[in-house]
Design a protein that fits this description.
two-stranded parallel sheet, 19% strand, alpha/beta, 8-stranded mixed beta sheet, globular, single chain, binds ligand 6CS, D-Maltodextrin-Binding Protein, domain 2
Length: 318
């Protein structure tokens, strides 16, 4: 039997490394009975399309990053609130691995849409790329910032003073090239493999958040699995989640060097804590917007997730 696994990223990406490892584990644990076939970004459609494909079981497993999945499961947008996630990726890993708020509370929100969440993992700090220097909200005036498609991201970049432009991943390069957008935001490995740096002059570290992704299946398919297959699936997911954490760090580190080599004139700016504070304050209103959009459920999820990050940070720094 074959399990189809769709990616929101291209060959050689972090999501691809996860899926390759997962495929290897499933093959081994099933004694070769189950093959995982991987579909990199571009073969089956946009991120939103991939989520629909697992809902109908045309594909069994897909990555669904909150920045897109948030359009379908509004509560997932909690991961897009700027300056909410920890700056410490160990703490982030801990929370994403096992927090009840993700697998119970958010899990229920996903189940209502026919989806089952298998895991979440971080893919690296999100960095702004731009065609000009940006250090304060005024610099974002009239600046068209590409965001992923979920509505809370529009609120986030409005709060920073930009003009948000939601768009599918595959359209970003040419939109930057044509000047229909002025900048975008993604982890370093993605900026490198999608070649966004070629058509941008600045990379800006604003400390805003880690890029996170979830791996989901359709819940009909998941619930229909035999106990043995479910165990193979769950164990392989868990092991691949541990595998990907150091891997994504390595990818982001190596690819930054590649970018520097390929384009030495690219300006790299690290915002100071004072500069970050200005954006952080602006983003307070995004929390209120999230609660407006998601009501009592969202309010509870936001509170629990905030607490989970505080607890995890205290644990990893001790
Ligand atoms: O910006 C995006 O749309 C995409 N970025 C990454 C790093 N992965 C998937 C997502 O769709």
């Amino acid at each position: 039997e074959t399990w189809k696994f769709a990616l929101e990223e291209v060959d050689g990406s972090v999501q691809d490394a996860f899926a390759e490892k997962f495929a290897e584990l499933v093959k081994e644990k099933s004694g070769g009975d189950i093959t995982v076939s991987i579909f990199p970004y571009g073969q089956l459609g946009t991120s939103g399309d991939l989520t629909e494909l697992v809902q109908t079981n045309a594909v069994q497993i897909t990555n669904a990053s909150p920045g897109h999945l948030g359009s379908v499961v509004e509560e997932m947008q909690v991961f897009s609130i700027p300056y909410l996630l920890s700056q410490n990726d160990e703490a982030t890993k801990k929370v994403l691995d096992s927090a009840d708020v993700i697998y119970d509370d958010l899990g229920d929100s996903l189940r209502k849409k026919g989806l089952e969440i298998l895991t979440m993992y971080p893919e690296g700090e999100m960095v702004w790329t731009a065609n000009k220097k940006i250090t304060k909200p005024a610099d974002f005036d009239g600046f068209k910032m590409r965001t992923m498609t979920s509505p809370l991201l529009t609120e986030a970049y409005k709060s920073f003073g930009a003009t948000p432009t939601p768009m599918a991943y595959g359209e970003v390069y040419s939109a930057l090239q044509l000047g229909t957008i002025d900048g975008q935001v993604n982890p370093i490995f993605a900026i490198q493999e999608m070649k966004f740096y070629e058509v941008q002059s600045h990379m800006i570290w604003a400390g805003q958040q880690e890029f996170t992704t979830s791996v989901v299946t359709g819940n009909d398919w998941y619930n229909g699995l035999s106990e043995e297959k479910r165990q193979i699936l769950d164990e392989s997911i868990e092991e691949a989640t541990d595998y990907i954490f150091p891997k994504q760090r390595e990818y982001n580190k190596e690819r930054l060097e590649k970018i520097k080599e390929a384009k030495p004139e690219l300006e790299m700016i690290r915002l100071s804590e004072e500069q970050r504070d200005v954006f952080r304050e602006r983003a307070e209103q995004v929390r209120d917007k999230y609660v407006e959009m998601t009501g009592e459920d969202g309010k509870r999820i936001l509170e629990k997730l905030t607490k989970a990050f505080e607890d995890a940070e205290a644990e990893v720094t001790n």
